[in-house]
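Lecture notes, unit on protein representations.

Consider one protein chain, 144 amino acids long.
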Amino acid sequence: MSADGRIYHRAMLLTEIDHVAIAVNDLQAAIDYYASALGATVHHREVVDPDGVEEALLKVADSYIQLTTPTRPDSPIARFLDKRGEGLHHIGYRVADCAVALESMIAAGATAIDEVPRPGSRGTTVAFIHPKGSFGTLIELVEE
């Protein structure tokens, strides 16, 4: 039920939190910190050339902490770091069907960054939703 009393009959599209993404200036320093402070180890590491980032995924149960750093100065992560500094960048929600979830979010008023789902890291399919239409949070939809 919504705050104004409307009842929604929408099936739940989120299956779990895929990852919490943290933008960092020095990926290795961040990896070392999480290893030292929490015993976390890198489960997957990848350069995502189209996005201009390198990421390290630290597995936490069935989800990840995604440490991400720019590989070029024009990447979205580089712009984020220049503007806001290190910190929480986005939340990745795991979904069974990225296209269906993207369509549902747009229908609910979200502003899509990606008009259609695209390839992501670790062989996933992803789509980003702009924070302006999602209560200030950059959202990544992730289909494994």
